[in-house]
Design a protein that fits this description.
By secondary structure, the protein is α+β, with helices and mostly antiparallel strands. 37% of the residues lie in helices and 23% in strands. It is built from three helices and eight strands; from the N terminus they run αααββββββββ. The strands form two sheets. Strands 3, 4, 6, 7 and 8 form a five-stranded antiparallel beta sheet that branches.
Length: 209
């Protein structure tokens, strides 16, 4: 009958085997005609095996401790942070644009085209304007704009990728112009839902990122 290899493959068994071997080989070294140098080498190998196994056990214990610590931080401190954010969202100066920028606006589990309201932000990009948005279930958005003082918004463009880059016109005087932007969600070429909050941006040729 073929015997199993004496050198264990299972790590836990290998550690015990190495400890037993290094202890017992001292006893039988003379009978096996093992020199002191050979004996020291074999004991050192066993110690290396045992130490390497113990090192991994320590790493696993440390990893588990790290994971537990991470989970505690997320569960406890994360909960406190969410409570702080809830308070921030009730502040008078809070807007959906701020929420979008901070990444603190959740998405509805069920899409309702009648109540869909896009969120847009406007930021400078050289001599252009970046209009950022998230689709959240729509194919794109229709962006409308008007200059301060104008009554009606005019359709600027359909945007399907964020950010949408736009260069507002400036008058001959070169003075900064205040623009307002709103957007509607679009599905299959039809506008749906509610208009976004109006976002105001002052544009001039000197506007830079």
């Amino acid at each position: 009958m073929k015997k199993k290899p004496f050198f264990p493959k299972a790590i836990t068994l290998l550690s015990a085997w190495a400890h037993n071997y290094k202890t017992k080989i001292v006893i039988y070294a003379s009978a096996l005609e093992i020199s002191d140098e050979e004996l020291a080498t074999e004991i050192a190998i066993c110690d290396k095996i045992i130490d390497s196994i113990n090192d991994v056990i320590g790493l696993k214990a440390g990893f588990k401790s790290g994971v537990n610590n991470r989970n505690d931080i997320i569960n406890v401190d994360g909960t406190n942070l969410r409570l702080d954010i809830k308070r921030h969202k009730s502040a008078a100066g809070y807007t959906d644009a701020i929420g979008l920028a901070l990444g603190i606006i959740g998405t509805d589990t069920e899409f309702d085209p009648n109540t869909y309201k896009p969120v847009i932000t406007v930021e400078p990009f050289g001599n252009l304007v970046n209009i950022r948005f998230t689709k959240n279930g729509v194919n794109g958005i229709n962006i409308y704009t008007r200059k301060k003082g104008d009554t009606n918004f005019k359709l600027l463009s359909r945007a399907t990728k964020s950010p949408f880059k736009y260069q507002p016109a400036i008058d001959d005087s070169g003075k900064p112009i205040q623009w307002e932007f709103i957007a509607f969600g679009v599905i299959r070429d039809e506008e749906i839902g509610l208009p976004s909050d109006s976002v105001t941006f002052v544009f001039s040729q000197q506007t830079e990122a």
